[in-house]
Amino acid sequence: MIWSNEFVALDKSIHDRASFDCGEVELNEFIQRYAAKHMEAGISTTMLLPASHALPNGKYPICAFYTIAPSSIAREHLPESRRKKLPCYPIPVFLIAQMTVHSNCKGQGLGKITLIRALKHLWDINDHLRAYAVIVDCLNTNAEGFYSKYGFEVLYRHEGRARMFLPMQTVGMLFP
Amino acid sequence: MATTRLEVRLDENIKAKAEKASALLGASLTSYVVNLMNENATKVIAQHESITLKDDIFDRFMNACAEARKPNKALIDAATFTKNQGIK
Fold it and tell me: 0.80 cut: is pTM over it?
């Protein structure tokens, strides 16, 4: 499958969600059933890299996608020194809620391309709406290995899954 | 403003129980259900959109953001690779 050269917003009338398969049921179901609904509801935005050629049904297969959303992080208890200076919390962050590559496109560096495009997208948003960090949820240890290779650090683990982060300042240094 | 309708098919027992609960609260079944939906939806959305951290983890996270490291070599190489591939 040959990919095109630009990530675009998911459009279910143009992009073929049914043929997407990355080998992870949870991510396949997300793009097939939830991504468009979440976008309509304003929960998250899904951007994808379509294939360069359409299928016989006229739709373009999806080579890779990422889903971003705003989120916030709060401290369980407010520190004494900050109590008088409200409102300090919660602080805004960006979430890469989903990110994956079609099985037919793996092993060609598309994972890191997708990560870079997602970070660049968030860096552009940060111009208008500041955030402290980019947060990712790791589905499994493979995902954790992928993100830690690129400098993400573990925030905490929950039910065996790691939630990781990369400071926005670090992202900024990547796009001078 | 109540301008849209929602039709629901449900278990008889649940309906009877909800009618009793709404009567106890002095509300109509409709306003009882609508309030319940509104409250729960607010909670679900807040849980979805916000993360709460234990104090020490939060402080460590804030320190890491304030003293952010430079991107590592793998990340810089990935950015260069993406640029060279011409993918926007």
Answer: yes
Q: Beta-carbon neighbour count of residue A175 at 10 Å?
A: 12
Q: Which residues of A touch B59 (CB under 8 A)?
A: 75, 79
Q: B61 — contact with chain A (CB < 8 Å)? A: yes
Which DSSP category does B71 fall into?
Answer: P
- Per the structure, the complete domain to which residue A122 belongs is given by 8-174
Whether A1 maps to a domain, the answer reads: no
Single out the residue of A24, A25, B85, A30 nearest to residue A10, CA to CA.
A30
ipTM: 0.88
Interface residues of chain A, partner chain B, Cβ below 8 Å: 3, 5-7, 43, 49, 69-77, 79, 90-91, 93, 109, 112-113, 115-117, 132-133, 135, 149-151, 153, 155-156, 163, 165, 167-171, 173-175
Q: Where are the domains of chain B?
A: 8-88
Quote the minimal CA–CA distance from A76 to chain B in Å. 5
Residue A2 lies in a domain: no
Task: State the Cα–Cα distance between residues B79 and A117, nearest whole angstrom.
Answer: 9
The 10s digit of each residue's pLDDT in A43-55 is 899 999 999 999 9
CATH number for the domain harbouring residue A52:
3.40.630.30
> How many structural domains compose chain A?
1
Contact residues for B24 (Cβ-Cβ < 8 A; gap 6+): none
Q: Is the pLDDT of residue B85 over 60?
A: yes
Q: Kindly state the helix (H) or strand (E) to which residue A69 belongs, with its residue range.
A: strand A60-75
Question: pLDDT, tens digit, for every residue of A15-70?
Answer: 999 999 999 999 999 999 999 999 998 889 999 999 999 999 999 999 999 999 99
Decide if pLDDT at A80 tops 70: no
